[in-house]
Dipeptide/oligopeptide/nickel ABC transporter permease/ATP-binding protein
Amino acid sequence: MRKSLPFIAFGIIVLVALITPLLPLPNPVTMNIVRRMASPSALNWLGTDEYGRDMLSRLLWGARISLAVAASTAVLACLIGGALGIVAGYFGGWISAIIMRATDVVLCLPHLLVAMLVVTLFGPGLSTLIPVLVFVYIPSFVRVAQVSTAMIRPNAFVEAVGTLGARQFRILTRTILPNVAGPLLVQVSLTASSAIMLESGLSFLGLGVQPPAPSWGSMIGNARGVMNMAPMLLVWPCLALVLAVLTINSVCDRLRDLLDPHQVAKAPLKQTAAALARRAASRVPAAGDLVEIRNLDLALAGSGEPPVNLVYGVDLTVKEGETLAIVGESGSGKSLTALALAGLLPPAVQVVGGSARLAGQDMLSLPEPELRMLRGSAISMVFQDPLSSLNPVHTVGRQLTEAILAHRPMSNAAAQAEAVELLKLVGIPDPVARARNFPYEMSGGMRQRVMIAMAISNRPSVVIADEPTTALDVTVQAQVLDLLRDLKEKEGIAMIFIAHSLPVVSEIADRVAVMYSGEIIEEGSAHTVLRRPMHPYTRALIASSPEGDDLPEGIPGRVPPPAARPSGCAFRARCAYAAEICATGHPPLVSIGGDHSTRCVRWREIA
Ligand SMILES: Nc1ncnc2c1ncn2[C@@H]1O[C@H](COP(=O)(O)OP(=O)(O)OP(=O)(O)O)[C@@H](O)[C@H]1O
C-alpha cells in the first residue's frame, strides 16, 4: 500500500484536474469586488483573492493548466529527444557528433533565460510557452537515450537481429527502444515536475499563462502584492505547487525502483524479506529439488510480430547443496534461463511457457516486490564483471553492510562486523582495512571475491554464478574457482554455474547441462558428461578447450541466430556426424542410462 501511495496521490491530482469543469465551482475568472480577500466560508471554501475570485476554483483550474503544460512538454521532449538520442547512440560517428554537440550547446543555455527571451520576442501564452519548454528539455532526453543505446548497441542480440536482415528502423524500434524505455520513462516524470516549476516561474513573471486565466505561478505573483493583508492567498498556490512536484517526484522514484529489477529491497521490507526467505526455505521438500525449471519457453516479443523463440522447453533441476553447470557457446540461452529463475529477464524477453520454481515457489508468477525480496536473500547472482556490478563511489565494506541490512534487521555495527567476517571468509587478507577500500583500489580477483561475499551475505539457498571467472586471468580464475568450491562444501549453498568452457566447470560441477541454440542437448553428472560425452557438440566443446598441451580445435560455423534456427537437429550444419536422419524431425532429449541424456539421434554410433 505504502509503495502505491505516490501513484494513488498522482491519480487523485490528475482525476481532480480532469473533472474540475464538472464540479459545482464558481467561475474562476468572475470578479466580485464586494467579496475581495474574503475568509474561507461555505460559499468560498478557501476564500477569495484580491479581485473576489474563488481561490479553490482558481487552484483547480490552475492545476489543469500546470498539468497540461507538464504532460505535453514531457511527452513531446521525450519523443523528439528520445528519437535523437537513440539515433546518436546507435549510429555513432558524425551523426552522434552533430546531435551531441548541438545538445551540449542547448544544455549550456540557462533554461529560465531562454524561456524569458523567447516569450518576450514571440509574446506570452501557452502556444509559445510549450514549444520553448520542449526545446530546453530535449537535451536531457537525448543524453539518457544516447547513453542507454550506446550501452545496448554492442550486445550480441542487437547484432543477431541485424544479421537476420532486419532494417535499421525495425532494430531501433523493436530491439533498442524496449531496452531504453525504462530510463526514458523516469526522465519523463522528472521533466514533468521540473516543467511545472518553470511554467509557474514564468507565469509569476507575467510571461507564462496570461491573466485572467488561472495559473499557480500568476496566483503566487498576484498574492505577493497583498501578502500583508491576506497571507493565505500566497500559501494555497505554493502548497499546491509543492504537493504536485513532490507527488510527481515520488512517482518518479517508484518508477525507477519498479523498472530496475537489480535494485535490492529497501529497509522497510526487511521483516517481510526474512519471512519470505524463511517461507521459501521451509517449502524445500526433504530430499527434493531446490530449483525446478520445467518446460521453460522464452521468446523475444515484438509488437505485431510472431515471437522469436530464444529458449525451448528447458527442464533443469538443482538439489540443495548441488552445483549444476550450464555450458554452451555465446547465444545458447544459458543466461536467459538463469535470469528467468531470478525474475531478471530483460524487458524485451517474455516467458511463453513453463515454470521456474525455487523451493516450490514459481518465480515466473511472483510479483516484482516479492521477487525483489527473494533476490539477495533466497537467490543471488555473481556476474562476470565485478567492476560494473560494484558501486564505484562506496567502499566495499559499506556495500556489503547495505546488502546485509537490506534483508536482515540488525544494528549497523553488527552488519559491519559481519561484512568484515564475510571478507575474511572469501579469503581477502586484512579484511578490516580492505573493507575501507573502494572497488577501483582492488584487483579483479579481489573484486570478484567481494561480489561472491555479497552474494552469500544473506545465506541464499542458491547462487547463480554467470561466467564469474571469464574476466579474470588464468591464475586468478583458478583461485576464484577454488573459493567457490570451498564455499559450496562449507556453506552447502546450491549453485548454478554458467560457463563457456567444460574444463572450467569440471572443477566445481556435480551435474552439467550443455545448451545449444536455446535448448539442452546433453545432461548428466559432470563426471559422465566430461568422460563420455554423447553429443557431438559436447565433444566439440571439450576439444575446443583441451587440458594439458593439446591444441584446441575450433568448432566450425556459429550458433544459428534464434529466428533462423534450422529444422531437425540445430547443430547438424556444424556436426561431423550429421546424417540424413538429423534433418528429419526435432530430436528429443533421450535418457541413455542413469541420469545421462542426449539429444543426438546417432549417440550409439558416437559411443
Ligand atoms: N534483451 C534481449 N533482447 C533480445 N534478445 C536477447 C536479449 N538478451 C538475450 N537475447 C538473445 O537471446 C539468446 C540467448 O541469449 P543468452 O544471453 O541467454 O545466451 P548465453 O548463452 O548466456 O550467451 P553469453 O554466454 O554470451 O551470455 C541470444 O540469441 C541473444 O541474442
Remarks:
- Confidence is low (pLDDT under 50) at residues 261-286.
